[in-house]
Amino acid sequence: MENYSLLYSSGQRTRLLSGFQRLRSQNVMCDVVLEAGGGVRFPCHRALLAASSDYFWALFGATTAERWAGSVSLPALAAEGLGAVLDFLYSGWLNLSADTLPTILEAARYLQVAPAVSLCEGFLSEGLRVDNCCYYANLAELHALPDALEAAHRTIAREMGALLGEGRAGLLGLNVQSLMAVLDTDEMAGVEEKDLLQLALDWLSSNGPLPALKSNLLLSRLRFGLVAPTDLAAFGKAHRAMATPLVRSQVTRALEYHALSSAQPLRQSQQSRPRAAGGLALLVGGGPSPERLEPLTLAFDVRSRTFSPVSPALPLRLQGHCVCSVGGFLFVLGGEEVAGDDDGDPAEPTAVSPSNRVWRYDPRFRSWQQTAPLLEGRSQFSCLAVEGILYAIGGRRGTPGCHTAAATASVEFYDMATGCWRRGPPMPRPLHGHASAALDGGVYVSGGLQGGSHSESVGSGSRDFLFWDPRGRAWARKAPMSVARFGHRLAAANGHIYALLGMFEPFSDIERYDPTWDHWTLLRPLPGGCFGYGMATTPSGKLLLFGGQRWSDGRRVTGRSVMEYDTRRDTWKEVGRLPGPLTGTECALLALPEQS
Questions:
Q1: 393: exposed, middle or buried (C-beta count within 10 Å: 0-12, 13-18, 19+)?
Q2: Domains and CATH numbers, the chain
Q3: Could you read off the pLDDT of 466-500 as tens digits, one per residue?
């Protein structure tokens, strides 16, 4: 058998189309005329049309009357759109603009020219702006362009704050499927739910009357639990669509949710969940140094690695407190409340007694509220949430009117159903400066110091590692850490417990506990060492460390770094910088709506 080669010329296709284009421009060998709406005629070549379009392939088939017809009338197509699609078939180039897009897209869809439709969809997706996203959404929905429609919905949701102002006419002209899709969005920056409810009611007034089934489908996308009770009562009388049994029942459930008070974290649902990203770490308290505390509340976006202030901030200067998120709310517990002036300097450098006050932040209405106080004031303690129950463990216990404090072994938990704190089984011995973490429904407590004086912690700490099963209500000792720790951090990630460095440790070692084998393993140390930092655990299992202090030439230096530890890869890297030096802050992850 002889050898042979199969060669391809990329220029042949171009020359073929150029040849057809030349023949068409000279009206040579054209065997069919297409007549658009308005009587505009386009001489064409039947073979090229059939080879390029499923519509013409079927039109010029063996059994159709148009097979050998000299002209074909297409009155549904505008001359501008038909001409542009024919130019594309003959040249491969599609001349698009925002003004010509509707007619060209209509012609491309009608004639079933898939490559031209794809180009139109790409043009639409890439050209989305606040002033055209609603119009483009209607266009994409009309012509069944799923990718462009999804992109338009994302743009509308992202720009909803601006659209509710200047672009309201576009929203009122939006097709109902797109409006429902946008109202299903979980993230919508700077928009109040009551404004979305008003938009939905205005849309129904402008596009109605709609059948009750369709209006119910639209209004059920609203999250009535995010609307204040007084506003819900007013909206209930504003439109007859709010009077249907389905909507009335949803409003009733929302009012019941608002009346739950302390039990709200236990009754979260889609109707009460904020339209917000979950990847936000909230930093509460601390300051440039332990002597200069600030009423600080910051939000760190894990995705964009940026900081923004939370308004309003908790109006307290705190140290030795705890922060925990439960059921979409942020709880700030105990600590030492230090008086200060406007510059952040303490008004009196005297010792303060640990507080028993508990504050709850509601991201739905951006408000702080005092809840039931702890049974005893606590500082340098630990708190965590297990299956919706908030625990406060150990710490330095304060006595009202007395500035001395001693370590305590007591444990208390917050019963959200009743809004009361209750006693739990105490630890085997008093501890403060310890750390705790929850894993698989159990509570782990590590390190700490038994004495109550801060000076006793210098150069000391404990290697003890305790476990408590809330179901068995008994404490047990586990394998001790390899390093004695005080003022350190404990985190649960990927089925393990991680112990991070604390104060006065000679090295920067961190270690991982395997609950299956009751064994600790040393890991890569934190570069440079640090203490007094805040820490949060991301859903992916990465640990974020904020600020803190280190020793330099015998002095404490406060840092601004945001360090990330990858628990799977055992690696450290800096991922951001704080707005200013910060130490003594406490952190928790929370879904927080972006503020306008």
A1: buried
A2: 11-126 (3.30.710.10), 173-267 (1.25.40), 280-589 (2.120.10.80)
A3: 999 888 778 999 999 999 999 999 999 999 999 99
